[in-house]
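Appendix C: a fully annotated inverse folding record. The material below is reproduced so that readers can follow the format used throughout the book. The structure is listed first as C-alpha cells, followed by the designed sequence.
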C-alpha cells in the first residue's frame, strides 16, 4: 500500500512540475567535491561507508535499478517520513540532488 501511495505522489509531483529533469552537470568542481564527500560520509553513515547497507538500505546501482531517477530525487529531497531517511531538500539544491542521483546510478561515490 505504501508503494502505491508513493507512486501516486510521484506522479502528482511530476505532473505539477515540482520534479524536473536535470543532471547537476553545471555544478562547480568545488561543489561536486563537497557533494561527493557528503555522499560518502553523510549518506554512508546510514547506508554504510561502502553504501552496501547499514541502518539504511543498500544504495548501490544494482540495488537501485528498479527505482526511477524521479523516485530517488523525491526520496533525497523529502526524506521518508516515519523512517530514518531525513529530507535533504532544505540543504541541497535540485541540481545537487540530481548530481547525487547520477553518482548513485554510476556507482561513482569517490
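Designed amino acids, in order:
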Amino acid at each position: 500500500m505504501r508503494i502505491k501511495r508513493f507512486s501516486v505522489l510521484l506522479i502528482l509531483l511530476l505532473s505539477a512540475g515540482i520534479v524536473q529533469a536535470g543532471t547537476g552537470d553545471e555544478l562547480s568542481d568545488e561543489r561536486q567535491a563537497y557533494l561527493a564527500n557528503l555522499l560518502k560520509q553523510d549518506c554512508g553513515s546510514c547506508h554504510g561507508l561502502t553504501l552496501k547497507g547499514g541502518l539504511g538500505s543498500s544504495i548501490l546501482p544494482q540495488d537501485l535499478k528498479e527505482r526511477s531517477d524521479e523516485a530517488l530525487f523525491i526520496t533525497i529531497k523529502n526524506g521518508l517520513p516515519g523512517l530514518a531517511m531525513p529530507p535533504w531538500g532544505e540543504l541541497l539544491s535540485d541540481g545537487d540532488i540530481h548530481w547525487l542521483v547520477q553518482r548513485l546510478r554510476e556507482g561513482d561515490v569517490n
